[in-house]
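Pipeline run #58 for the internal structure catalog. This entry was flagged by the ingest filter as a single-chain record with no existing model, so it goes straight to prediction. Upstream metadata was stripped on purpose; only the residue string is passed forward. Reviewer on rotation: M.T. Logging verbosity set to normal.
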Amino acid sequence: MEIMIEAVGAIRQSDKTSGSLKIQKLAGDASLRQYFRVFSKDRSYVLMLVEPFSEAENNFLLIRDLLEQTKVPCPGVCAIDGAAGAILLEDLGDSTMLHEISKNGSPDQEEKLFKESIDLLVTFHKNTQVTPAMAAKIPGYGLAFDVEKLMWEVDFTFEHLFQNYLKRTIDSEQHGKMRASFVDICERLAREPRVFTHRDYHSRNIMIPEGGEMHAIDFQDARMGLRQYDLASILRDSYYQLTEERVYSLVNYYIQQVENREGLKLDSAHFIRLFDLMSIQRNFKAIGSFTMFYAKRNDPMYLRFVGNTFENIRRNLLKFPEYMELRKALFQFYYF
């Protein structure tokens, strides 16, 4: 606790050192949270700074405790100061899954890392199955990717991509037709059975400590949703493009692991169909986030991922003839 208090004070005074501590600012994620590595005499920590919070109501801490109790690998907590908006975390190092894939680059290493990430995802889904005690304590168990929430994400992208970023005017009739297709997609998705989803499960949110197993981070927004939500996030990741052959091989690997570890038989053809449909919605939302960061924060870093993500959407919409008009309209406004 003393280390955290000293570090927070030094950061607020813009000091890089304080007594025996050395402080290094870390690159943040897409949120407004700030991260710092704090070096003491014998070890290092990661300090996360957010707005002041109540420890009993902080989603990150509530879900982190749940993951620790259910043996889902996640960062340990060393100290907490809610009034200061500070959480001192175990230092998992700098190596994300994306970093490890990029460093090696071989097909065998790619397959190995993605299978490990799916093993972790199966553990997350299996070990966090809802119980009355969990539901009473974790707000996310009372929230779901229902039609309303899925469509909120769709409307978010219409606003930030077409309106704010591309400055395209879509007349009300055309917008209504496009939105009606997305409503149909979201209704199909919302009918599926739900698990507790990480909600932002991709290669930048998986840490690999030196000599250790994968750990999930950035899970504070977890809520109930279909399994394919997280699976689409990792396999149709905007930051790393897999071949379609590899994608479906890994989807089948997930299905096999669920059957082996949960004893649950999934209809493979139906599961894959919904995976492709979920990928459309999930990638569309990602584009909304990337363009929002630019419009609201003047942060262009994520714009480079928009093109690849739109290509993911195009490839998957081609698999659904019933949404041909949606595909034509989306790309009319994006490409022309």
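catalog note: Residues 97-335 form a domain with the Aminoglycoside 3'-phosphotransferase; Chain: A, domain 2 fold (CATH 3.90.1200.10).
catalog note: The first helix runs from residue 2 to 12.
status: ready for reviewer M.T.
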